[in-house]
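SAMPLE LOG
Freezer: B-3
Tube label: C17
Construct: single chain, 266 aa
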Amino acid sequence: MASLTASETADLIATAHALADAAREATLLHFRSPGLSAETKEAERFDPVTVADRLSEQRMRDILARRRPQDGILGEEFGSVAGTSGLTWVLDPIDGTRGYLSGTPTWGVLISVRDETGPIYGIIDQPYIRERFEGGLGRAEVNGPSGRAVLAVRPARPLSQAILFSTFPEVGTAEEGAAFRRVAPKAKLVRYGTDCYAYALIAAGQIDLVIEAGLQAYDVQAPIAVIQAAGGIVTDWQGRPAHDGGQILAAASPALHAEALALLNG
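STRUCTURE (predicted):
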């Protein structure tokens, strides 16, 4: 990890919260708006992007240009900008645009900052219910309608007692879906469709596992920072670092992670 002074750490955290505040305002301008429409990024499947996605990311980039011009940026909508500091901000202006379009409050804004080792701090923000999860740089807490609380994963339990989440029932390719279905029937409860909010629920001690595939770096880096700060573990399906996305296995405990990993790999 990059060596940071106390003032540098404080500035990173303050900047991240400024980004989250700006993105919260931008996304709420259009959420549940009757006239909201979306374009699709792909011809083969509906991969939506809205005016709110672009506005949210642009406002965050404007803040970084003023406050942290030396840092790099990787964002979903406007690509990457190189920096000189060794730090890069990784932004997903709306994670879960399908949920956003549908009016469900399970989408979120993902903000993280990484160095050469991976994400060192992250925020998962749900603007509509005003719930913000943060982790890294000595922090692991949630602030929302019920007040402020420390984040901590659930106590270790076997897969047979675990709650498992994934965004899409098909998970990914046919092969990836088959691997997921070796795990899912052995869990106590399986739920779908919550996008980044599922990762926040691991950090908050509400669920035990998230298994997904086909993710990008901006989908996972903030969740990795938050979950690790809360005591959990996030890797790919081979147990390797998952900073660049792909197949993701997030777990509340090493033992549960190992049990799911073994099943994913047959």
